[in-house]
Amino acid sequence: MSIAAFARRIELETRPIHPDTRVALDKRWAELPEHAKTPEQLLGKCAVGCEGTHGVFPKCNLTCSPCYHSADANKVRIDGNHTVTEVTKQMALLRQIRGPRAHAQLIGGEVSLLDPKDHRDTLKAMRAVGREPMSMTHGDFDYDYLLATVLDEDGKPAFKKVSFAAHFDSLMRGRRGAVRPKSEAELNPFREQFTKMFADLKKEHGVDSYLAHNMTVTPTNLDEVEEVTRDVLAMDYDMMSFQPAAFIGDDRRWKENFEEVTIDAVWERIEAGAGQKLPHKAVQFGDPRCNRHTVGVMVDGRFATVLDGDEPKDIAARDRFLSHFGGMIFGDIPTWALTVKVIRAVASHPGDIPPLIGLMSRILKRAGGTRAVIRAARKGKVSFKTFVVHNFMDAEQVKPAWEMMQKGIVADDPKLKETQERLGACMYAMSHPETGELVPACAQHSVLDPIENIGLRKLLPLEPKGERRTGISNGKADELVAEGGSRW
Ligand code: SF4
Predict the structure, then answer these.
(1) What angle do CA 131, 132, 137 make, to 5 degrees?
(2) Quick check: pTM over 0.85?
(3) Measured between alpha carbons, how far is residue 206 from residues 132, 203, 361, 368, 384 in Å?
(4) Is 392 close to ligand 1, i.e. is its CB under 6 Å away?
(5) Is 243 helix (H, G, I), strand (E, B) or coil?
């Protein structure tokens, strides 16, 4: 490489905002519907949105009510080659449209049914194109599986950090040791055990982790959200995410009136569990009818939000930082490059230092003051926490609304119009390399999954009775495959 080319590479690597990110953000903003172009909107300013895989391992070995997988999902064989190949293609399109960096969920069925090497290779393929992958699981796997996924054949870590989201709630059936839980509290030892595996991973192999806790909420467990929040806040999860149930996916699992569970109803109970208000109006991903979230620092049980929508100085700082630094990438880059990048960013906007100091001092005040933070830090009781509620929509509305959108028709019916508005501002996309399209996850699950799984059943039929899948994994999965099919 010539000196000039080398210098250009270094300049690009340390440029505060990568030019491809700038292009992807501007495109994202331009394509947002007008109602979503609000001051608090983060899409198109600092984020392109979340991404997820589909049709790459549809099978699962637990049962949940509701379940967003289509009725045929368990009739498709898990096949590592298919997973790695298809994920690679899906991620390539996301890289092309959404730019060099985004969070992507490895999702579609139960990820721990993948052979650990296939799981690892898939994570590597996602990282290779700048995706920060999060493996979405029911959490019912052993430490051996985690090690076999995270460590290469030579026993050395394949990753510096891994992200997993574990789904725990009492609507799930078939977990080892809690086949039919009667309450959310009954699952606490399993929630703890999940985090312990990652603490051991760090202790023994130095691999960091980011852990999310997912819970589906229906009228049955709505009133337990408060207790779950309280209990899980004391555990080592970085994010707590709640999904009010929707009529989507497998209609054999629609057993309650999910409409009773709203974002507000869930958020109230999260606040009750956290023992305080959780301000969320300063930032928004996509449409507020789809998502609500807040990020803050938990200091010895007290949550200090990073941005408070009722504090004008916070809002002024937010706008300033978004316009100057929105789109800066901090993850997965060498420390030297990050340091130079930050120095270049600050040097180009030195006037942002006083507002930054002001914001940090307000966060410290919300957390109880500097002394309280130092005391808590000494006890290891300071951590970042994110609360999320994601509100999927019902297939009954998504299907017609999406089909009309494909034809460029704006719905007159208020419910369908709302659905179209939300789909238009979607922050959770799935990629279709065969058409070059990105599709909202609601449309994927409501319209495309059932069609896709018909094709996958032919492409990847279940193994004949008696054949066992190889690799370290949850024993139940092997049993199910040996039985030649799903448990339904
Ligand atoms: S349209 Fe559906 S998948 Fe997209 S953000 Fe809204 S609820 Fe989520």
Answers:
(1) 115
(2) yes
(3) 19, 6, 32, 32, 20
(4) yes
(5) strand
* CA count, 13 A, side-chain hemisphere, 396: 7
**285 close to ligand 1 (CB < 6 Angstrom):** no
- Give nearest CA residue, ligand 1 atom 4: 426
* Separation between Cα atoms, residue 144 and residue 149, nearest integer Å: 9
User: d(Cα 350, Cα 389) in Å, to the nearest integer?
Assistant: 36
Q: Let me know: does 172 contact 476? Beta carbons within 8 Å.
A: no
**Tokens 């208000």 — which residue?**
277
Structural domains of the chain ordered from first start: 41-297+384-483 (3.20.20)
- Does ligand 1 have an atom closer than 6 angstroms to the CB of 126? no
pLDDT tops 70 at residue 482: no
**Tokens 């070995």, residue?**
61
Query: At 239, phi and psi to the nearest 5?
Result: -135, 140
270 contacts: CB under 8 Å, gap ≥ 6:
225, 226, 229, 240, 242, 278, 387, 389
The identity of residue 413, as a single letter, is: D
DSSP summary character for residue 382: E
The residue that leads in pLDDT, 117 or 469, is 117
Relative to the CA of 289, which ligand 1 atom is closest?
Answer: 6
pLDDT, tens digit, for every residue of 16-66?
Answer: 999 999 999 999 999 999 999 999 999 999 999 999 999 999 999 998 888
Backbone dihedral region of 369: left (phi > 0), alpha (psi from -120 to 50 degrees) or beta? left
